[in-house]
Amino acid sequence: MSGHDDVMDSLRYAAHRRWRTGDRLRSYARYLWYVLRHKYFVFLACCKYGVPLAGITHDLSKFLPGEFFPYARYFYGPNSQTRTQTPLEKVQFDRAWIAHQHRNWHHPQSWVLRHDDGGEVVLDMPDRYRREMLADWEGAGRAKGRTDLAAWYAKKGPGLPMTPLTRIWVERQLGIAAMPASPVWRAPEP
Ligand SMILES: [Zn+2]
Description:
8 helices; single chain; two-stranded antiparallel sheet; mainly alpha
């Protein structure tokens, strides 16, 4: 996605009539507060996992207009409470999310290599990024008042694209390596 698209998206949001200026600014402020809290908790966790620098650069792209406005609107906008986001809101959010994944290597989805013939390979995550990923999960949990990371992982982990090596490392860090192995995510056959 080009910078031009990002700017056009932002303008389209600004031009949206049903969302009054006061409400819009409140949503932006609430989302900004959320991101700052998230970054603070991720920074603490990054220090714990030995990658403090990653804690500083973590999710900085969330301040770019192409990510900030669609996220703010999706999570705090007029349709967020009822989860009735419009098709446009959903499309914009999906674009922001894929842009985020391509800019930030701490997401396991960033390590899915897509070949031209449609095949997919999941790559091992470098140590620095898997540490930041753990810190991300932990920080996101704390920002939302959720502290049991192992329980969260038991629910969400199996759906994430990770190689067995990355998965075993993660589960060791979480102290759940002795649990029955989670199903290994496999890319669809080409
Ligand atoms: Zn991120």
